[in-house]
Amino acid sequence: MAALHIRLLGEFRFVYDDKQIVAIRQMRQQTLLAYLLLHRHTPHLRQQIAFLFWPDNSEAQAHTNLRQLLHHIRRVWPDLDDFVQIDDRVLHWKADVSFTLDVMEFETRLEQAANAVRSQQFNVVHVALQEAVALYGGELLPGNYEEWLLSERERLRQRLLDALEQLALFLESRRDYEQAIHYADQLLRADPLQEITYQHLMRLHALNGDRSGALRTYHVCASLL
Question: Whose CA is closest to 163, among 94, 211, 108?
Answer without folding.
Answer: 108
